[in-house]
């Protein structure tokens, strides 16, 4: 996996080439803001740390497509592939899941589709969506 980004204004990053993880193709030109980490924690978890950016780009892209469960699962997988510390994975993955719960649980459609997707993943295995 080679992620090539160029910085833009206001903490935005633009993808220079397509980025592929499994069946997900993030197209050239896609723009991300990096990880949405509160500024208070930037000392420990910088929002554009290279160890996280591959996971962040896939996560942001899938969330834009409203594929939240897949986004969370792939986020965790990529962090593990990049050998991020287990403690950091726990905090980062917990953060995105908490954010999704708070932001999207009020929308019944998303909440129901998330629950259905979880049941499918449990029934069919993690890699089958």
- Uncertain spans: none
What is the overall silhouette? Answer: globular
Q: Structural class of the secondary structure composition? A: mainly alpha
- How many beta strands in the DSSP annotation? 5
Order of helices and strands: EEEEEHHHH
Protein described:
- The structure is a single chain.
- The chain has 129 residues and is mainly alpha-helical.
- The protein is built from four helices and five strands.
- The chain has helices at residues 50-64, 68-81, 86-104, 108-124, and strands at residues 5-7, 13-15, 19-21, 24-26, 31-32.
- It has a three-stranded antiparallel β-sheet with strand order 1-2-5, with helices on one face. A two-stranded antiparallel ribbon has the order 3-4.
- Strand 3 and strand 4 (24-26) form a beta hairpin.
- Helix 2 (68-81) packs antiparallel against helix 3 (86-104).
- The mean pLDDT is 75.
């Amino acid at each position: 996996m080679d992620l090539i980004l160029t910085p833009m204004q206001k903490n935005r990053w633009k993808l220079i080439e397509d980025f592929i993880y499994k069946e997900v193709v993030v197209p050239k030109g896609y723009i991300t803001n990096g990880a949405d980490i509160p500024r208070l924690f930037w000392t420990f978890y910088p929002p554009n740390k290279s160890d996280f950016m591959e996971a962040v780009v896939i996560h942001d892209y899938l969330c834009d497509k409203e594929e939240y469960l897949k986004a969370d699962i792939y986020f965790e997988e990529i962090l593990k592939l990049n050998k991020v510390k287990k403690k950091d994975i726990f905090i980062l993955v917990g953060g995105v899941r908490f954010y999704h719960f708070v932001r999207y649980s009020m929308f019944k459609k998303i909440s129901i589709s998330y629950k259905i997707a979880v049941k499918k993943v449990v029934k069919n295995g993690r890699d089958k969506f």
